[in-house]
């Protein structure tokens, strides 16, 4: 699976203000910003993202997905590197 394919899958199931992916085709690292994360705990956010993948995790199309999830307000407060 390519980064563009994975991005399209996540974006189709979750309204993202920002979505960045890095990986090797099986192991992925994502930074996801969504208003849907407002008021949710970390585990709820992760479950929401995994729900967008459907069975892709179970069929090993996506072997591993590590993620950082932020609400828009949390993202606005993140330090940025120049």
From TrEMBL:
Protein name: BolA/IbaG family iron-sulfur metabolism protein
Family the UniProt entry places it in: Belongs to the BolA/IbaG family.
Membrane-crossing segments per the record: none
Gene3D superfamilies with a match to the protein in the record: BolA-like
Classification via Pfam families: BolA
InterPro entries registered for this protein in UniProt: BolA, BolA-like_sf, BolA/IbaG_stress_morph_reg
């Amino acid at each position: 699976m390519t980064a563009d394919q994975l991005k399209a899958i996540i974006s189709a199931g979750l309204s993202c203000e920002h979505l960045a992916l890095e990986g090797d085709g099986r192991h992925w690292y994502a930074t996801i910003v969504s208003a849907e994360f407002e008021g949710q705990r970390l585990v709820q956010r992760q479950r929401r993202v995994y729900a967008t993948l459907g069975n892709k995790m179970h069929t090993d199309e996506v072997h591993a997905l590590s993620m950082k999830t932020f609400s828009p307000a949390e993202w606005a407060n993140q330090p940025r590197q120049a």
